[in-house]
């Protein structure tokens, strides 16, 4: 009965907080920040032992349909044409557009917790920029871990003549590593973004939902687009962009619903009556 009341309350908040509209807002900002972010990231990796293929390979795991072709073609073309000024441009553009996206997430979370944004413009923007930079750092670490982890593992296992076995084990656990990293990123977002003091245990339910939900939705949508969806027939050359927007929309939806779940757990406890 409590579970039924929980979902009824979640549905009520889903309508009250205009979750669908806020997810569309997030999709718009995600699209704006995608290419500046990738340009910045791919330019930055010249200074770390990670290849462009490592970065694009992470996206390729989840990107649906032909969107990966659009991402690779445009980003690599820009990188080949202009190199020197891209890092500074990428930093500025990434911070601005991505922090706009974080601001939209902050507003959605504040609405979920029924709190007002009483922080000053500079404080709120500073929080958004810090969260953006933190996510950049986490993503870089996430890219470095598989590279170094694989090399270290191969060295250790090769010493015992087990290099082939390690490759099988590594392929099995890399999804687990991705899950842990995503869970950590979402947890940081849910903990720091809303204008309310939260404890780690207050955001665990939403972080778990967002992680599982995002991986599941991305995989299912990618399968649907690859096997059934024919967006090109309807939208022509814009089909790939539409697929990318829908993917971002579903991603934003998972993030906001996770925030709503955290708000219900914190505010309502076992009493799911608004």
TrEMBL record:
It comes from Sutcliffiella tianshenii. This is Membrane protein. It holds the Pfam family Virul_fac_BrkB. Keywords: Cell membrane, Membrane, Transmembrane, Transmembrane helix. The chain crosses the membrane at residues 26-48, 86-106, 127-149, 169-191, 203-225, 231-250. The keyword rRNA processing does not apply. It is found in: Cell membrane. It is a multi-pass membrane protein. NCBIfam families: yihY_not_rbn (TIGR00765). Its main location: membrane. The keyword Membrane applies. It comes from the Bacteria.
């Amino acid at each position: 009965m409590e579970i039924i009341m929980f979902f009824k309350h979640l549905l009520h908040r889903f309508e009250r907080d205009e979750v669908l509209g806020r997810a569309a807002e997030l999709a718009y900002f995600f699209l704006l920040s995608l290419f500046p972010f990738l340009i910045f990231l791919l330019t930055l990796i010249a200074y770390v032992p990670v290849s462009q293929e490592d970065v694009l390979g992470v996206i390729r795991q989840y990107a649906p349909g032909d969107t990966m072709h659009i991402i690779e073609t445009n980003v690599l073309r820009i990188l080949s044409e202009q190199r020197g000024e891209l890092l500074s441009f990428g930093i500025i553009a990434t911070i601005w557009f991505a922090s706009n996206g974080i601001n939209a997430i902050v507003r959605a979370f504040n609405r979920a917790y029924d709190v007002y944004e009483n922080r000053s413009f500079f404080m709120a923007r500073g929080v958004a920029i810090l969260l953006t930079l933190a996510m950049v750092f986490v993503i870089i670490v996430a890219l470095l871990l598989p590279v170094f982890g694989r090399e270290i593992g191969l060295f250790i296992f090769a010493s015992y003549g087990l290099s082939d076995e390690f490759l099988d084990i590594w392929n099995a656990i890399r999804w687990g590593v991705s899950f842990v990293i995503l869970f950590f990123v979402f947890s940081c977002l849910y903990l720091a973004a809303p204008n309310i003091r939260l404890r780690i245990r207050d955001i665990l339910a939403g972080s778990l939902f967002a992680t599982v939900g995002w991986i599941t939705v991305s995989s299912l949508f990618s399968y649907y687009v690859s096997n059934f969806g024919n967006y090109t027939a309807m939208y022509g050359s814009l089909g790939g962009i539409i697929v990318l927007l829908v993917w971002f929309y579903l991603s934003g939806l998972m993030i906001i619903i996770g925030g709503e779940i955290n708000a219900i757990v914190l505010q309502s406890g076992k009493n799911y009556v608004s």
